Amino acid sequence: MKKIVILISGRGSNMEALIAARDAGQLPVDIAAVISNRPDAMGLETAARAGITAHFIDHKAFAGREAFDAALAECIDSFAPDLVVLAGFMRILKGEFLRVFANRVVNIHPSLLPAFPGLESWKQALDYGVKFTGCTVHFVDQGVDTGPIIAQQTVPVLTGDTAETLHQRIQQAEWELYPKAVGALARGAVRTQGRQTIWKEK
Ligand code: GAR
Questions:
Q1: pTM: predicted TM-score of the whole model, two decimal places
Q2: CB neighbour burial string for 141-165, b if at least 16 within 10 angstroms, e if fewer
Q3: Average pLDDT for residues 25-35, to the nearest whole number?
Q4: C-alpha–C-alpha distance, residues 25 and 30, integer Å
Q5: CA neighbours within 13 Å on the CB side: how many for 196?
Q6: Whose CA is nearest to atom 10 of ligand 1?
Q7: Which amino acid residue places its CA nearest to atom 5 of ligand 1?
Q8: pLDDT tens for residues 120-178?
């Protein structure tokens, strides 16, 4: 069975969706650990309650990004995961970290990339006036939200939506999409060809 490590920074609802899918027998992975860069991340308690090893590595305790990335990489590597799953992890990973975990880091982003990369993408979508937005699961590469796309799900923008209501509906889509995409990766049902990802099954 493939082993994953989940990285979080906050609430951890995507992490919860992954744990629930695993518990329901829909996600054939061993969740070896959950790691947060913030000691106060709510998701750490949720992970511990689910009996999953939970660590925090406070990025503020390090002199710079590279030192933090190195400590994070060492902690992740101690679990020898097949996949590193970012679930609301709000630090940019690049350089040596991504060389160590090349093609093994995936992220969920709250927009239909390449539209609205970066922060508060649901607000960007609302301000822009698009009629559809959604969420994207992608491999993490050296850019910000630029890696090959694995899966996407659309969410309509409704009249009267606020940033909060739109983000809530995007999150519901995320909770469906992420377990499906991670499950497909774990079963070896997705292969990459340059920027394209090809699903052997849906
Ligand atoms: C999610 O909406 C996720 O897509 C977003 O943060 C939220 C985390 O929620 N991630 C990003 O914006 C990454 N650029 P969660 O902690 O409840 O899973």
A1: 0.97
A2: beeebebbbbbbbebebeeebeeee
A3: 97
A4: 11
A5: 4
A6: 88
A7: 88
A8: 999 999 999 999 999 999 999 999 999 999 999 999 999 999 999 999 999 999 999 99
| pLDDT reported for residue 201 | 64
Q: Report the mean per-residue pLDDT for the chain.
A: 96
Q: Which residues line ligand 1 (CB under 6 A)?
A: 8, 10-14, 87-88, 108-110, 171, 174
Question: Nearest Cα to 47, choosing from 80, 18, 83?
Answer: 18
The protein residue whose alpha carbon is closest to atom 16 in ligand 1 is 12
Rounded Cα–Cα distance for residues 13 and 16 (Å): 5
pLDDT in tens, 76-123: 999 999 999 999 999 999 999 999 999 999 999 999 999 999 999 999
* DSSP code at position 159: T
- Percent of the chain past pLDDT 90, that is, above it, reads 98
Q: Contact, 134 vs 111, CB < 8 A?
A: yes
Q: Which residues pair with 5 in a beta bridge?
A: 33, 84
Per the annotation, the verdict on 59 as an active-site residue is no
Planar angle of CA 44, 181, 13, nearest 5 degrees: 25
Residue in 86, 141, 174, 178 to alter for ligand 1 test, most ligand atoms within 8 A of Cβ: 174
Ligand 1 atom nearest the C-alpha of 11 is 16
